Amino acid sequence: MTAAWAVVLRTLLAHWRRKPLQLAALLLGLAVATALWSGVQALNAEARAAYARAAAVLGGDQLDRLVPRAGTTLAVEDYVALRRAGWRVAPVLEGTTQLGDVRVRLLGIDPLTVPPQALGGGAIDGAEALRDFLNPPHSVIAAPATLARLRDASELGAGQPAEDLPPGVVIADIGLAERLLDQPGRLTHLIVAPTQKPGIPPIDRITGDRLDRLQPAEDTGLAQLTDSFHLNLTAFGLLSFVVGLFIVHATIGLAFEQRRGAVRTLRARGASERQVTLAILVELTLFAVGAGAIGMLLGYGLAAALLPDVAASLRGLYGAQVPGQLSLRPEWWLAGIGMALGGTAVAAVSALWRQHRMPVLATAQTEAWRTAHLRGLRLQAGLAAGLALGGGLLLWQGAGLAAGFATMGAVLMAAALALPGLLALAIAGLTWRARTPVVEWFLAEARAQLGGISLALMALLLALAVNIGVGSMVSSFRVTFLGWLDQRLSADLYIRGQDTEQATAMAAALDGMASVDRLLPIQSVALQTTGAGPFDLYGIVDDAMYRGNWPLIAPLPRAWDRVADGSGIMISEQFARRLELRPGDTFAPGSADWAPQVVALYPDYGNPVGQAIVANAELTARWPETPRLRYAVLTTDPGAAGTVLGALRDSFDLRPDQAIDQASLKAFSRDIFERTFAVTLALNVLTFAVAGLALLTGLLTLAEMRLPQVAPIWALGLTRGRLARLEVLRAVFLAVLTAVIAVPLGILVAWILLAVVNVEAFGWRIPLRHYPGQWAALLALAVATAAAAALIPARRLRRVPPAVLLRVFADER
Amino acid sequence: MLALTGVTKRFGPLTILDSVDLTLATGRSLALVGESGSGKSTLLHLIAGLDRPDAGRIMVAGAEVQTLSDADRAALRRDRIGLVFQQFNLVQSLTVAQNIALQARLAGHHDPGRDAHLVDRLGLGGLERRYPEQLSGGQQQRVAIARALAAKPPLLLADEPTGNLDEASGDAVLDLMLDLVAEAGTTLVMVTHSPRLAARLDTTLQLQAGRLA
Q: What is the pLDDT of residues B91-104, one digit of tens each?
């Protein structure tokens, strides 16, 4: 039995020796599909592991926490009261600060009260370590890589390495943290020990209703926040995978067709259907595992190349720290090979089914092409209509990011399935107008070829449409974002004091400079909402700079006057979406006794944290302890910003981020923006490359089947050179038709991305702009891709020896 | 119409045709017979300018075929030669009517009346809008003959035109072809295995291992 199927396998494998190009196409398609998918998965896995590590800091993944309610603060006194009442709680002061040249997330703890499981592997071991931690120069706990970067920070002593801490996180004594964060007497939360003494009074009775007790599971903010980003990546990975599978499907289908004779002979010689199927399955498994492994290596390379940009986007967009190095996880390998196997199975299922149903004595002739083709077109059109309908329903009824992507997937697949029918219709329309026999033949062959390369054209359609869609989205975004930056960052300089004292001194110095027109204080307080996460409340002074430049969405009349008199508040677009607020509604940023009306929304691109603006006087009256650290500086002449900056740096010992001019700030914001879309654009280009590859392999595998079609025309008096040119022209013609269909589809994709996906993912809606120049460039790229793909088979045709063409007429054929 | 002198063709070490000489006057018909591999089809291909001889001279309708460029040989085929193959070799993507008109239109002297006449004579009425795959073998060969004759070529080359058909269909197709050739005064060279069919043509020449016997 075993020997029999091995003989069958050997016989079937002989096919690939004769068709190495087909084998290469199959393996390449599978490898590339696996590479793009697994590359994206590696990026996602790395980021998710980083989020899990971040969530686990100080036992965040297993211990309860007490946090202040919206509009309230937590002070050392609350902690003391709870401890006195018998509660085993540990204080934490958390904030972001600059240590040396490194920006870190600093967590201040009291090592004597913190539960041991909160520190995990980073526990302070022994009396000496505890003494170093508590006394100057304080030692801190951080990941070895972070400690290495902190070596020059003069505030710190020797560090204690903790492998499981995420990069950029530093645990220090709470006293040191108070000083470094300039938050004396303040706490951000309390860690609740898992076991408590029996009979202690409830927390409410000690601190009133000012504290919320959060379970560990409730604090998965980072993972939730970044979900959209990763879903975006996954969607692109999946698209590339599907496009790659088109190649695999086309090649496997062709090989099955070409091996029908061999299979029939094997069956007639006594091989059972089961043995043939088993041999084919073994063959496909070998290919899937081999090509999958190559794909995994390519995917690893891709992920490693993209990780720095992904890490930068995640940091810029969400403040998430992801290490810049990939680690190989066994589950990633398994998932990748599984995907390759699954993809091969999906691509081969229809061919296997046909093989299974083939009677032993089936004639060698394949089913009449025209009838089968027409039936296929009708079936595809039906499926396309169903999918389009489903997509429409999802758009109408669905909600959430997954529904947005599902709509896009349905629309793309519907268009891809409808493509051969649309192309056939377009060709039929043109045939009607054809006047010369060569044009007639050219069009008739284009239509006949559709069956063979429609999968490659579908891949091209998807790649083009997604390119147009993503290109339009990014370009629309870029234009809107840059315009917004110009409006938003209209002061010439932004300064920030290390503490109130330094800020006041800087303000005084600036006041005395002739080239400084005016100083606008910017104060903010970090607050918490129930349900919509944290937000920053800004207090600004009424000034023409804001009134003239600040971009607003749907403002009520006299919006700025209302903010200035304390009866109005402005809210960032994504924060308003989260709170489900519209202009005209009221919002209480702190306690319920002050609920100003929302007088306008404003775009706040790239900010994961909610934001709202009120009058500075209101903010300082209600949160009197808010330090005045930041100022916007307007100079008399924009050219004077550099001089003012220089003078400030001369007078004060400033870190680079403490005084920054408008141009640098814009460049920084632009950099975050560009990096955010760098990954998407890279995947986009790769998808296009895969589509080009699909076209190339499709045309190459078709090339040898083309000879019987081309030979009679050659015999009738067309030269091989002309025939070769016509072959290239036909590929280009089909690509151009596909590209023309791709433009409206791409616009639809852009609209779904901007109006559905982005709104769900980021909370922003930006206007869709059209870029005909981009479409023309993509059209040219499609033409170039098709021409390049057709060139190799066409060159072969031009140089094919007459003897090979004459074989077509020979009786032995 | 046709004159071959010392025509030799080799494929690697094999000599397929060895110094073949023959002449054929306008309007005459010639049957080339011989066993498989004797070089019959190769000789036909060389006459049609589909391939070049290694030595010798081939004159077709006043043109010295072996000296012509690829493009000129293509033009010669298009304008002066009709070809019929054993495998029919119709263009699968074109209808019967388009296949019949194809060569005449390529040559630039298409005559719809001639097409209609051929359709009528060859019994193809009602099949004009069908595609080759929807026809029987005999019908396809009749379409191939109509296509070859629609351009009114002075020379018709037929390679086993009935080889793929049963005897009755083959005889019927050959009758029609010979009638049409006689009607138009076309010169005919036909390759065949069958001495019975060869006997119906004016002259028969036998090829043996690449030489005329």
A: 888 899 999 998 89
Question: What DSSP designation does A553 have?
Answer: B
Backbone angles phi, psi at A497, to 5 degrees: -85, 150
Q: How far is A717 from chain B (nearest CA, A)?
A: 4
Judged by average pLDDT, the poorest of A87-96, A188-197, A259-268, A629-638 is: A259-268
Does B70 lie at the interface with A, CB-CB under 8 angstroms?
yes
Q: Kindly list the distances between the CA atom of residue A265 and the CA atoms of A1, A16, A177, A363, A461, in Å, as whole numbers in the listed order.
A: 18, 17, 81, 11, 39
From the list A721, A802, A811, the residue facing B50 with the nearest CB is A802
Q: Is B201 on the interface with A (CB under 8 A)?
A: no
Q: Does B45 touch chain A (CB under 8 A)?
A: yes
In this predicted structure, the answer to whether residue A812 has a pLDDT above a threshold of 50 is no
What A285-288 contacts at long range (C-beta under 8 Å, 24+ apart), as own/partner pairs, is A285/A341, A285/A344, A287/A26, A287/A27, A287/A30, A287/A344, A288/A30, A288/A337, A288/A340, A288/A341, A288/A343, A288/A344, A288/A345
H or E element: which one contains A756?
A: none
A713: closest chain B residue by CA: B91
Residue A427: list chain B partners with CB under 8 A: none
Q: Do A810 and B91 touch (CB under 8 A)?
A: no
Verify cis geometry, omega within 30 degrees of 0, for the bond prior to A137: yes
A–B interface: beta-carbon pairs under 8 A: 96
| H or E element at residue B8 | strand B2-11
Are A231 and A401 in contact, with CB atoms under 8 Å apart? yes
- Separation between Cα atoms, residue A60 and residue A609, nearest integer Å: 20
Compute the radius of gyration of chain B from its Cα atoms: 17
Task: Report pLDDT digits (tens) over A763-811.
Answer: 777 778 888 888 888 889 889 888 988 888 899 888 888 888 888 877 4
Residues of A in contact with B48 (CB under 8 A): 715
A572 backbone dihedrals φ, ψ, rounded to 5°? -70, 150
Q: CA B30 from chain center: how many Å?
A: 11
CB contact under 8 A, A370 and B131: yes
Is A717 within 8 Å of B50 when comparing Cβ atoms? no
| Interface-testing mutation among B36, B84, B102, with chain A (most A C-beta atoms within 10 A) | B102
Strand partners, A192: A89
How far apart (Å, rounded) are the C-alpha atoms in residues A140 and A107? 10
**DSSP assignment string, A609-651:** SEEEEEEHHHHHHHSTT----EEEEEESSGGGHHHHHHHHHHH
CA distance A422 to A739: 12
H/E element holding A718?
Answer: none
Q: Is the confidence metric ipTM above 0.90 for this complex?
A: no
* For range B7-15, the mean pLDDT: 91
Q: Record the pTM.
A: 0.72
Please report, as a single letter, which amino acid is at residue A595. Answer: A
Nearest to B178 by CA among B201, B205, B147: B201
